[in-house]
Structure formats: structure tokens, C-alpha cells
Amino acid sequence: MTRPGHPRPDNLPGGPPTPAPGQPDLVDELTDLVFPVIEEYLQRIGGADEFTTRQFIELMRSEPDGAAVYDEAIRRWGENPRHSRMVIHGQVIPAALRRSKLVEWAGFAHGEPDEDAIPAWWRLTGADTGEDAVEPAGSEPTAQ
């Protein structure tokens, strides 16, 4: 079985294409797509030293440029919306966050609701934030 635009056979029916040896897979390509927007938001984020992946995605989708790149990643994954969200929330966005030097993984977010991925906490590494800082949805400002 092949997917439109992907001449290689799928690993499983409806699954992502198998990359040729030495070629990036679709998760890598989508991580490259979302990284610049994620890095931009991390430079502007304010009000919280820590946030969950879900809070960050809500922030990202709250502005037109973030929503556009998120929607494009979902579209490019090409499965049904639920499965596409699971990949984008659970692999692509966390991979882009791990790539950034502005944030570090702070552990699993036990008890935090997230129907699309295993919830995780992220911590800003102390990088400068701009005056036009935005806060992740559901976060509470931290005292300075």
C-alpha cells in the first residue's frame, strides 16, 4: 500500500511511509516544519516557568501562525484526525521542544489530562523572553 505523494510502501495499512535508508522520516520532516514556530513561541513565552505539552499546543493554536503550522502538520500526517493528533502531540511537538535549547523536559505530568499523548512537563532553561510574552493556556503566572 502506498500513500499519495509517498512512493514507498507503508509499514502497516494506513501508517506512515517507510523512509529510504538514510532519509528522514515523516516525523523528522514535520519536526522541521514546526520547529521555527515553536522556537518563536519559546522566546516569547511568559508567566510560567513550567508548562505541559498540552498547554503549549493550546498556546500555539491560539495564534494564526501557530494554528496554521499545526494544521499543516496534521494534514501532512494524513491519517484520521485522532491518529494524526496523537502523532503530532506525542512525537512531533515533543521532538521540536527537545531540539530547542530554550526548554528542557521536566518529567511526566501525572494526573494531567491529555487524550492525545502521554502528558509531559517542560521547563524553560532561563533564556531571555521578550516583552510581548504570551502565557500557555491554563497556566498561572509565577511570582518573581
Give the strand tally.
Answer: 5
- The overall pLDDT, averaged over residues, is 83
SSE order = EEHEHHHEE
**Residues in β-strands, percent:** 5-15%
Looking at the chains present, what oligomeric state does this protein adopt? single chain
Q: What class do helices, strands and sheet pairing give?
A: alpha+beta
Count of separate DSSP helical elements: 4
Q: For the terminal residues, how far apart are their CA atoms?
A: 55 Å
Task: For the largest sheet, list the strands in their spatial order.
Answer: 3-5-4
Instruction: Outline the biggest β-sheet.
Output: 3 strands, antiparallel
Molecular structure report:
The protein has 144 residues and is an alpha+beta fold. It has a domain at 40-124. The chain is 42% helix and 14% strand. The protein has helices spanning 26-44, 53-61, 64-77, 81-99; strands at residues 2-3, 6-9, 50-52, 103-108, 120-124. A 3-stranded antiparallel β-sheet has the order 3-5-4. Strands 1-2 form a two-stranded antiparallel ribbon. The protein is globular. Residues 1-11 have low confidence and may be disordered.
Features:
144 residues; alpha+beta; 14% strand; globular; disordered N terminus
Please render the helix and strand layout as text.
Elements: E1 2-3, E2 6-9, H1 26-44, E3 50-52, H2 53-61, H3 64-77, H4 81-99, E4 103-108, E5 120-124
Antiparallel strand pairs: 1-2, 3-5, 4-5
Helix pairs in contact: 1-3, 1-4, 3-4
In short:
It contains four helices and five strands, in the order ββαβαααββ. It is an alpha+beta fold. The N terminus is likely disordered.
